[in-house]
Structure formats: structure tokens, C-alpha cells
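As noted in the main text, all predictions were made from sequence alone. Below is one such record, for F-box domain-containing protein.
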Amino acid sequence: MVGSNKHTRNLCCEGELEATVPTLPQEIILEVLLRLPVKSLCRFRCVSKSWRFIISSPQFAKTHLDVAFQNKTLFSRRRRIIFSALNLYSVEYESMCSVDDGDVVAVELDYPLKDNPNALGDVLGSKKNDLVYFKVSEDEDENPVMVKVDVQSSVNPRNWVEIWGSCNGLVCIAPDEDTLFLFNPSTGESKRILEESFSGPATCGVTAYGFGYDSTSDDYKVVRIDTDSSFSVYSSRTDSWRRIGTFPYDCSVYNSGMFLHGALHWVATSREDEDDKYVVSVFDLREELFWGMPAPDVDDSFEFAVGTLNGCLCILYSRDDLHDDFWVMREYGVGDSWARFSISLPYICMKPLCLAKNGEALLEVDGRLVQYNLEEDTYKVLGIQGIPVGVGFEADTYIESLTSPNGFFGREFQMYN
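Prediction:
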């Protein structure tokens, strides 16, 4: 059609072709833009001032996200898996559903502090002799045994990037120890979260974070649980931390809080129960209060993590031994609705990522990506091209969006005047 449509191209006097934009009602243009991928919208900001004004609007970003949540096809196209493997990588969700050879292609992401060397790599980089001696025997009656290791060849120059949660296209990451950023992998925007600063005594360290969205106040929040059982909340609207109180459960939680139904969830043990019975610790982001949800009857000698599968809360083993089961809460908040599932794939640490179109579950299992058919109890391990061989990974999901981490939250903005 290009070259034959006189409404889209006109012949100039100099004999060159000049492109013109068709005149369409603004409502039609808006409906088209709302269905386009983020990559295209970022390019189309340069089309005209009016398009830039529309696409850069916080209200447009919210509507663009809402349209995807309401349309299964658009949601599937915009869903991504983010991997941390001494770097950050992204994979299209739909490509995982369509691969026949078991391989998917990962795209390396640019993220804040990516090129900052880690402390060990920086120290070793200043040494002329990369051979380091380690003492492996502490027996005073024996001569110490020393081994010589070429450390430089085994040290990656980058820090491991922790992924502490994902919500509405934003991912909370820690590319360095206790250094948090809100990061949009689709647009490349990021915002460093200020370090916690209080006048009280210093805490002993962090055990876990959680990240989620309070829709009532239009606020993205990060929750921090410390080893001394204190917990704090960061608000993106105020760009500040607040010390809230004391974590009301045993503070031995190490995994990121799972965001679901406006709340963050961890598996913890009750301080009031003499038998150290497990509960699901729920932090309501709107009320900023903890409450306990019944957990399934599980062995208290293991550690557990919380995940989601098809919108349902899950409890899974997170370390210590091989296991072949997990639990799913069929009805949120109802203790009697916990159901135990057995699988033929033993795991030490497992995290459900999402369900594919064909109903198969995409799982992160001990640093591998697995496609699992829950009905037939069969699975296959998916290879990931682009991630270094032999490097394990952590994974999470996110949806492509225009959500900005830089100060758009809570603003009133009229984009159609």
C-alpha cells in the first residue's frame, strides 16, 4: 500500500517523497496507542509533540497497563521473565510457550550499577599474582595444609543482583549489598531508593525485603525486615522510609515477600505458639498492619518460601533437602483450602513463575528453567541461550509497562485537553 496511497505520501516539488500523518480522531489514535508494545511507544514519542505528551503521561501509563490486564492476548504478549545470573536478562514469555527444541533466547539488560566491579574482583584486580593460597587445615597437631587456587579466573567482575519483587512493570533489585533500585526493564528507567536513616540504634542487618503496590494511595512500597525484628516501609510517593514497629513473628525469613491481593506474604513461625507452628505472615500494604493466615500442616524442621501459581498462594520448600511436594491455597485466606501436590521432579528450592497457554507451569527449579505438565506429571528442562553456561540463576516475572519509578506516583495529570 505504501507508494500508492495519496493520503499518506505526497510528491514534493524537488521530486522527493514526504511522509504526512493521516488525520484521525484523537480517540482512535489513543485506542491504537494503548495496544502497542512499550518499545514502539518509546520510539513514537518522537512523532509529534502531541504524541509525546500523551505517551509520557502517567495516566496513559496506567491505562496502558490496565488494558493489558483486561486483555489476555495483550497480557501474554507483554509478559516477561527476568533472570539474575551475575547479570540481568529478559525472555519473552510467549517464546517459551512456542519453543520446540527446548531453547529460549535471553536478552541482556542494562541496569543501574551494572559496570561496578564487586569488592573481591576489585581487590584481586590489583594483584600481579592471581594465585592465592588458602589454609584448609586448622588442626594444631598437624602441619597446615595449603592449596593454591587461581582465583582471578573464577571471579566474576559483577555482583550478584538480588530480585526482591515485581509489580506493574517495576522490579525491585539490589545490584549491590543493601543497595536498592526500582527498575523498569522495558524503558530502562531506574530510581535509587534512599538508604534507611533513623535516629534510633542501628539494626544488625536485613533478613528480607518485599515490594508491592498500594492501589488505594497509588503508592509503590518496599518493606524491610531486620534481624532485630524491626521492620520499615519505604514509600515511593514520599521517597522516604518509616520505622513501623516490630515484626510479630519469628524473624527467620530470608526470601522476598510475595505480593498478592494488595499484601506481602512470608512463611514464619508464631512467637506465641509453644510448638513454633508455621503461619503465613501477611502485611497489608494499605493498612500497614500484619496479620496471620493459616499455613498447611508442614514439617517445622525445614524452611519454606511463598509463591503464586495461577493467582493462588503456594508454599514451597526453600532449602536443606530434596522434596517432591508443595501446597496450593485454592481459596485465598481459607486455611481448609490448602491442597498438597506431589510431583515427579525432586527439588531443593523451587519457585513457580507462571502458567503457559497450554496449562503447563513454568518453574524455576534449583537454578534451572522447567516446563511442567501438572496433569500428566511430565516435564522438560528449557535451555536458555545467552546466559553463561554453568551459572545458576534466580527468576521472576514482570509485565512490560511504561510505569516510571521517577516521581510520577500520585500526581494529578490531565492528558486530553
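The longest strand covers residues 338-347. The radius of gyration is 25 Å. These features were considered when defining construct boundaries for the mutagenesis experiments described in Section 2.9.
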